């Protein structure tokens, strides 16, 4: 099933911390914006609305995992 991967669903245990950091930390805002943008792009590709080959989609998915790891690390440190 094709679906988006909202960061609040990925880390529900950090929902309050995510909201707090988003409002007070510019670096975290950039991370979340990058993740959200990439997640939307992947969703559109998976739906077939943006034609790309599988290698590009795989690379974008890996980038999303990397960003998710960065966000998790940020949440752990702050």
How would you characterize the overall build of this protein?
The structure is a single chain. This protein is mainly α and 78 residues long. It is built from 4 helices and no strands. α2 crosses α3. It is elongated. The N and C termini lie far apart (34 Å). The mean pLDDT is 93.
Question: Quick recap of the structure?
Answer:
The chain has helices spanning 7-10, 15-24, 26-47, 54-77. With 78 residues, it is an all-alpha fold.
Annotate the secondary structure layout.
Blueprint: H1 7-10, H2 15-24, H3 26-47, H4 54-77
Helix pairs in contact: 2-3, 3-4
Describe the structure using short key phrases:
mainly alpha; 4 helices; 77% helix
Overall geometry = elongated
Number of helices: 4
Strand content: under 5%
- Biggest sheet layout: none
Q: What's the overall average pLDDT, rounded?
A: 93
Helix content: over 70%
N/C terminus separation = 34 Å
The low-pLDDT segments are none
Rg value: 13 Å
| SS-derived structural category | mainly alpha
SSE string, helices as H and strands as E = HHHH
Give the tally of β-strands: 0
